[in-house]
Amino acid sequence: MSMFEISIIAPALLACMLVLSTHVPLGTEVLRWGIIFIDLAIAQVAGLGVIVADSLGWEAHGPLVQVSAVGAALLAAVILHWTDKRWPEIQEALIGVSFILAATASILLLAGNPHGGENLKELLVGQVLWVTYGQLIPVAVVSVSVLTAWYFFHERMRGSGFYAMFAFAITASVQLVGIYLVFASLIIPALATRRIVHGGVRIAWGYGIGFAGALAGLVLSLFADLPAGAVIVWCLAIIALLFRRSGSSMR
């Protein structure tokens, strides 16, 4: 591998690990609560916020775009927290409806944009191979903040606190790696390690699976000239399946 290829993969791999740093622990909680598609719904709503900002002519990756994305995600988190208290028995269905509404709203907003198809593809699959170190700084700040809140206060952080923390983590991630990889990084490591009883061991294995999937996906996508986000999702799934079949799930 040449130095040029390493210079491309290094920031992309760091971006994936920043996403995984918050998604692996959050994913275990989401799986335990049975609200699996909340990540996908809030990520789609955050993406809708980005599209709204773009349609208003705001600078890509500028502060107003971030405000729009975070605001949309927090609004979705508030609504979903309210529905969880009001109708907990149908919360998963309401999360699915929220995702569909946000996804179709994005399509409608991009319908008149000549680059709408490309913008939508980038939002879904991401352009992780082309991230820069400068883009990672605000994501790193959010990740450290979320992890600090999680590890020190998560036993007391239920309801609105959890949803708000989740919204910030998702908004920071979706513009880096795309909606599909955001969802996969939350759910796949959590599924692969769900039978591990010890929390610390489970999180460690989740990080290991995530790192292996990200590295394999980035290298494969670079040499095969394929969309990195989609390839990483498949590599994560394959490595998670191999992990489960190997019997390495420590109890």
Question: Can you give a write-up of this model?
Answer:
This protein has 251 residues and is mainly alpha-helical. It is 80% helix and 0% strand. It has helices at 3-33, 38-55, 63-86, 91-110, 116-125, 133-153, 160-177, 179-192, 199-224, 228-246. Helix 2 (38-55) packs antiparallel against helix 8. The relative contact order is 0.17.
Brief rundown of the structure:
This protein has 251 residues and is an all-alpha fold. The chain has helices at residues 3-33, 38-55, 63-86, 91-110, 116-125, 133-153, 160-177, 179-192, 199-224, 228-246. The protein is built from 10 helices and no strands.
List keywords for this structure.
mainly alpha; 10 helices; globular
What's the overall average pLDDT, rounded? 84
Largest pleated sheet: none
Task: Output the helix-strand order.
Answer: HHHHHHHHHH
Oligomer, anyone? single chain
Q: What would you call the structural class?
A: mainly alpha
β-strand percent reads under 5%
Number of helical regions = 10
Pick out the low-confidence regions. none
Radius of gyration: 18 Å
Shape: globular
Share of helical residues: over 70%
How many strand elements?
Answer: 0
Query: Could you tell me how far the N terminus lies from the C terminus, measured between alpha carbons in angstroms?
Result: 38 Å
